[in-house]
């Protein structure tokens, strides 16, 4: 994993051969770098391009430079015929103190169609009863119909960067990976950063040989902002092990963060024209915007329900503390109802109130000791309380704990919401422990060679606490802090 993170993918000094590359110094307009295959696209040897002013190249569309926004990573696409009359795409990208220029031939099979036949169903006008899975399936289905790739998958990242295929569409209607997870090491941090910064990543053939980039001063160009950037040998082998020779990946950016990826796979070499790629990028961007709005809407619905629950809790607690003797039992009962959990313990000085499974009562002393000694935050969530209990018995039944601490005063109360262990099955695309195998003959790490379903079942912990669980706990703490009863101040 560490070697993957250290691999400088953006400094390979090579590109894929389906295009040619120029790097222009922003201050001098001189070509400081050029790929050796430039003659295949512009009928001029690379020696006649390197070191020249861009204004000395009659085949270069100068207008694209003046129109390019002065924002790192911004890009424009221009078209100009070469000497043979073939249309060339010039992709101009703003880099750090330079401009990257990538040149591709227009594909003869380039489709001029757009996603217009899907305009009747706009994400922004979808029916309110759509679920997130409806969004996922719609996206993969549309892309599968439009692009020639054999398989289209929507890959969602978890907080730990483990990925899961949440939707899949294929030309043969067979699903191979839907519901399967992939370890975080499959897409290391440096690769995720490049996905975030670029609108797509195309690999037309894993069998093609990379092309060297030559420079004026033997420097390696930064290919952070590049569609042509060469492919890591580890990734080539990874795709080959999946029986994939061509791929297209498009980042799904939701609320300014890398939420997931669209991954298109094909068993043979396949070049997709720039226009088709750009159309698909726009569709994914539209999905990202609309799905982000859907997530915000769902969160708003939850907040409304939560506010109603909190209002009822506040009223119940106000009534409970109307007398001198605080009714901690009502606190426990009210919160257990809100969380639909197996038990809630409330501690204050030597007082203990518990609402839940009667068999758990005998463990409350151990629970209180663990909470008071180790879980000292205002709101703390864990999935296995046993790690804070010295020599827990084999039949210790409690696992998850969401701790809400009013204050550190003796009169302050501490609420512990409890969960039992839960059997959780994760289905992986291959054994995650073998995601990166031992070094091969070339000294590089090797990816796993099997992506067959591999199930991992665990039942030692509770289900994880969600962000909404923690947010609700913070709201409960705010309610308790607002109570006026002397035993709670």
UniProtKB/TrEMBL annotation:
Top-level division of the source organism's lineage: Bacteria
GO molecular function per UniProt? ATP binding; kinase activity; photoreceptor activity
Q: Which InterPro entries match?
A: GAF, GAF-like_dom_sf, PAS-like_dom_sf, PAS_2, Phyto_chromo_attachment, Phytochrome, Phytochrome_cen-reg, Phytochrome_PHY_sf
Under Pfam families, the record lists: GAF, PAS_2, PHY
Name the UniProt key words of this record, in alphabetical order.
ATP-binding, Chromophore, Kinase, Nucleotide-binding, Phosphoprotein, Photoreceptor protein, Receptor, Sensory transduction, Transferase, Two-component regulatory system
Q: Does the keyword ATP-binding apply?
A: yes
- What is a biological process (GO) this protein takes part in? detection of visible light
Does the keyword section mention Aminoacyl-tRNA synthetase? Answer: no
Annotated Phytochrome chromophore attachment site domain ranges read: 131-290
Q: What is this protein called?
A: Phytochrome chromophore attachment site domain-containing protein
**Which lineage?**
Bacteria, Pseudomonadati, Pseudomonadota, Gammaproteobacteria, Alteromonadales
């Amino acid at each position: 994993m560490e070697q993957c993170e250290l691999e400088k993918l953006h400094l390979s000094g090579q590109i894929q051969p389906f295009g040619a590359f120029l790097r222009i110094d922003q201050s001098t307009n001189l070509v400081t770098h050029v790929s050796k295959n430039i003659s295949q696209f512009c009928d001029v040897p690379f020696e006649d391009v390197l070191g020249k002013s861009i204004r000395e190249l009659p085949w270069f569309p100068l207008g694209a430079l003046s129109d390019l926004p002065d924002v790192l990573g911004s890009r424009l696409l221009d078209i100009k015929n070469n000497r043979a009359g073939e249309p060339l795409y010039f992709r101009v990208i703003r880099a750090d103190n330079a401009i990257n220029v990538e040149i591709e031939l227009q594909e003869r099979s380039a489709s001029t169609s757009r996603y217009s036949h899907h305009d009747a169903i706009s994400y922004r006008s979808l029916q309110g009863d759509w679920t997130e899975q409806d969004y996922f399936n719609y996206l993969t289905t549309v892309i599968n119909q439009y692009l020639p790739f054999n398989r289209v998958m929507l890959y969602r990242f978890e907080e730990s960067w483990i990925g899961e295929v949440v939707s899949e569409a294929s030309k043969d209607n067979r699903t191979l990976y839907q519901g399967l997870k992939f370890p975080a090491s499959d897409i290391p941090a440096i690769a995720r950063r490049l996905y975030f910064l670029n609108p797509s990543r195309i690999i037309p053939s894993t069998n093609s040989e990379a092309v060297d980039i030559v420079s004026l001063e033997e420097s390696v160009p930064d290919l952070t902002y590049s569609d042509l950037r060469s492919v890591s040998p580890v990734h080539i082998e990874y795709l080959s092990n999946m029986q994939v020779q061509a791929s297209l990946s498009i980042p799904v950016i939701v609320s300014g963060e890398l939420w997931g990826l669209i991954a298109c796979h094909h068993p043979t070499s396949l070049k997709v024209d720039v226009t088709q790629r750009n159309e698909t990028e726009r569709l994914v961007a539209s999905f990202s915007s609309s799905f982000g709005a859907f997530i915000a809407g769902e969160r708003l619905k939850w907040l409304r329900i939560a506010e109603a629950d909190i209002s009822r809790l506040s009223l119940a607690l106000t009534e409970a503390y109307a007398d001198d003797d605080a009714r901690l039992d009502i606190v426990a009962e009210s919160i257990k109802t809100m969380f639909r959990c197996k038990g809630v313990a409330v501690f204050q000085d030597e007082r203990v109130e518990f609402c839940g499974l009667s068999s758990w009562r005998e463990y409350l002393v151990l629970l209180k000791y663990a909470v008071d000694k180790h879980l000292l935050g205002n709101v703390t969530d864990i999935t296995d309380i046993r790690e804070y209990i010295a020599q827990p018995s084999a039949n210790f039944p409690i696992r998850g704990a969401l701790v809400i601490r009013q204050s550190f005063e003796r009169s302050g109360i501490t609420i512990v919401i409890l969960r039992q262990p839960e059997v959780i099955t994760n289905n992986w695309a291959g054994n995650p422990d073998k995601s990166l195998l031992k070094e091969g003959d070339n000294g590089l790490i090797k990816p796993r060679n099997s992506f067959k379903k591999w199930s991992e079942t665990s039942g030692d912990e509770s289900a994880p606490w969600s962000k909404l669980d923690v947010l609700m706990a913070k709201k409960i703490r705010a309610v308790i802090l607002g109570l006026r009863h002397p035993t709670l101040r």
